[in-house]
Write a structure and sequence with these properties.
This protein is mainly β. It is 8% helix and 48% strand. It contains 2 helices and 31 strands. The longest helix has 25 residues.
Length: 392
């Protein structure tokens, strides 16, 4: 009997180890990184503005400040206990820039127990802080996060800008191949798994070579080398889970046959659609057009590219498995001439717009063609001149 019991215990332990190992393969862990001015290194990090006021927040314990006037603001994050952290801006010299920043780094609702973060750089109008560490209470214990700040001040304007000062990266397995993964909190709100129809409100992921800049939206799915995977990202960014997508429902989209490139994104992720005579497929769901492009050559062999970007909600469409989503995009585009009169002087500007109000870019052999001209003539013909527009 003793021998049998020992064998049973051994089998149970071995089964438990096997299940644990299988789960560990699903959660692929990444390394945490933080850096001053991380946005310049990683890119795809949105600057968000924080409204500041000289009014002292009610119910918040404050430290001893050095400045006569201190400014306060709140950084919002779903990871914080109260969904925000209080910030205070102070300065050590009466006539100097604001060079001290207090933040409720432990999320206890008080600033009185915080040490000031000194600006690492100041100029005549701005102060720069970071990376500033805050700690959230996660399900499995404390979670670190870093922020970078810029405080801009003039007599008539004060602006506090913040963006993420951290990211996650590391090697993962996709199918049977090793890839490098980078997770980016694009909207700087403290979590790494935001999904949204709006590109500005969803986070970013890169899977490929270590130096790859092929950035996609965090979503329900991600395509890697033509294979569709289900994607799960930990809220704190510590790990990703990728499983080959099975039994995914697709629907058709139809665009004009002249469109040679088309991409859209939403909560399902970001997709560059393979078009055949203007017809492509996407997983069923709601999307927003990211961009379209038409490419063709002229009689001299020059390559021309016409592209539409920045659609807003007018670029939203639904994909279902019952009927095709027909998108009226592409040519023709509209050239607008805007005229303004101020203090007796006229100013002119020209822009190209698409059918849905999107911005249009035009290139010839990967360069901007010469700017258009405007011909101005008065009723009597005494004033008759032609001017060239300039880019920028």
């Amino acid at each position: 009997m003793r021998t049998r019991n020992l064998i049973l215990v051994t089998v149970i332990i071995a089964s438990g180890l096997f299940a644990s190992a299988a789960w560990g393969q699903q959660e692929q862990w990444l390394g945490y990184r933080s850096m001053r001015e991380a946005r310049q290194v990683i890119g795809d990090m949105r600057l968000q503005g924080i409204e500041v006021s000289a009014d002292r927040p009610e119910g918040v314990e404050l430290p001893e400040f050095l400045a006569e006037e201190v400014f306060f603001g709140k950084w919002s994050s779903p990871m914080a206990k109260n969904e925000h952290l209080w910030i205070a801006l102070d300065k050590s010299n009466k006539d100097g820039m604001y060079n001290r920043l207090f933040i409720d780094s432990d999320g206890d609702g008080s600033l009185s127990d915080e040490q000031p973060q000194e600006a690492y750089r100041t100029d005549s109008r701005s102060s720069y802080f970071g990376p500033v560490k805050v700690v959230f209470e996660g399900e499995d214990g404390p979670v670190s996060y870093h922020l970078n700040f810029q405080f801009y001040i003039r007599e008539d304007r004060k602006r506090l800008s913040v963006n993420s000062g951290c990211w996650y990266e590391g090697q993962i397995e996709v199918g049977s191949e090793k890839k490098y993964c980078v997770l980016i909190d694009q909207n700087g709100n403290g979590i790494f798994n935001d999904k949204s129809l709006s590109s500005g409100d969803c986070d970013r992921i890169r899977i490929g070579k270590k130096d790859s800049r092929d950035t996609k939206f965090v979503g329900n799915f991600i395509e890697v080398e033509g294979v569709l995977y289900e994607l799960d990202v930990a809220p704190d960014g510590a790990y990703v889970v990728l499983n080959k997508a099975e039994n995914v429902k697709y629907g058709k989209i139809e665009v004009p046959e002249t469109i040679t490139e088309f991409a859209a994104g939403g909560e399902n992720g970001f997709f560059e659609v393979d078009l055949k005579k203007g017809i492509g497929e996407l997983p069923v769901g709601k999307y927003r057009i990211d961009h379209w492009q038409i490419e063709r050559k002229d009689e001299s062999g020059n390559t021309w590219k016409l592209a539409g970007r920045y659609f807003g909600s007018k670029g939203d469409f639904d994909v279902s498995d019952s009927s095709a989503a027909k998108l009226d995009i592409g040519e023709p585009v509209i050239s607008n001439l805007n005229v303004r009169k101020r203090e007796g002087k006229y100013s002119f500007s020209q822009e190209l717009k698409g059918k849905l109000g999107e911005r249009i870019d035009l290139q010839q052999s990967n360069n901007r063609p010469r700017a258009p001209k405007v011909h101005i003539k008065d009723e009597k013909g005494k004033y008759d001149r032609t001017y060239s527009f300039e880019y920028g």
